[in-house]
Amino acid sequence: MTTEAHLTPATYLKIWVALAVLLLAGVIISRFPMSKPVMAVTVLGLSTVKACLVGLYYMHLKVDRRWLTGIAVFPLVVILLAVLLVLSSTLVRL
Question: Considering the entire predicted model, what is its pTM?
Answer without folding.
Answer: 0.67
